[in-house]
């Protein structure tokens, strides 16, 4: 029985196994009044216990923001007026998503592995159970991707991961100024011949700080005080503008 246990251990840990050893430049991002974006450096190395097997080794890095339900509407012109005619409800779409790779996704990741790990944009948008009033759901999801790619809330950075001698790698992911508060999931994948051989997860916390945090908490916890302060500030601003205008005219 002892020799059987040894054989099972050898099968469970194949020769040439490779794994990721990685880190982040920061695990917390603070949103303040003058916040204009940030950047996360993802870096690491490939750990081997034996010589590397044949086939090119590739790296994929993804950064995913909090997901929320989204209703995508299509407008059409009827009787000279633009109105909403069709809509699709998506269960969850990331508020921010970036995928950086060492090469073209089609070449380094199989469809089966993409379906399993949800790496590409069509897979990460969870549209299972989407409610359709009319039209093809795939068309609406493609429109959502296109709009958020143009807004740079979604980013596909093929070839942006620097990989040296199939050992050391780094990727710089730029975060926009309009970040949604919450947990941002950072995933790293090693692939060989289109198959994921190792994966690792990290988390970056994004939180409002200072005045931004105070106003956010006030609006959520005591909305009537927040509304009153907003009215007072608007009144003061209006009075100040009118006074300045009279001084300029005189």
TrEMBL record:
Transmembrane segments: 224-248
Keyword Membrane: yes
Keywords: Membrane, Signal, Transmembrane, Transmembrane helix
Species this chain originates from: Paragemmobacter amnigenus
Signal peptide annotation: 1-17
Keyword Transmembrane helix: yes
Taxonomic superkingdom: Bacteria
UniProt-recorded name of the protein: TIGR02186 family protein
């Amino acid at each position: 029985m002892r020799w059987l246990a040894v054989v099972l251990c050898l099968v469970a840990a194949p020769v040439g196994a490779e794994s990721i050893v990685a880190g982040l430049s920061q695990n917390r991002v603070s949103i303040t009044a003058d916040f204009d974006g940030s950047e996360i450096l993802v870096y690491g190395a490939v750990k081997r216990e034996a010589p590397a097997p044949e086939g090119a080794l590739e790296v994929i890095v993804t950064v995913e923001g909090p997901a929320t339900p989204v209703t995508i509407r299509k407008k059409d012109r009827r009787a000279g007026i633009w109105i909403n005619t069709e809509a699709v409800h998506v269960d969850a779409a990331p508020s921010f998503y970036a995928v950086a790779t060492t090469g073209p996704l089609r070449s380094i990741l199989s469809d089966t592995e993409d379906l399993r790990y949800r790496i590409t944009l069509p897979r990460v948008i969870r549209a299972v159970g989407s409610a359709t009033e009319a039209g093809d759901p795939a068309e609406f999801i493609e429109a959502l991707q296109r709009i958020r790619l143009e807004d740079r809330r979604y980013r596909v950075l093929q070839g942006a991961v620097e990989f040296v001698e199939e050992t050391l790698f780094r990727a710089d992911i730029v975060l926009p100024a309009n970040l949604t508060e919450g947990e941002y999931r950072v995933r790293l994948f090693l692939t060989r011949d289109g198959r994921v051989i190792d994966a690792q997860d990290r988390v970056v916390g994004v939180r409002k700080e200072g005045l931004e945090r105070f106003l956010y908490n006030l609006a959520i916890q005591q909305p009537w005080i927040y509304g009153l302060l907003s009215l007072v500030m608007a009144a003061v601003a209006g009075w100040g503008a009118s006074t300045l205008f009279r001084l300029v005219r005189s």
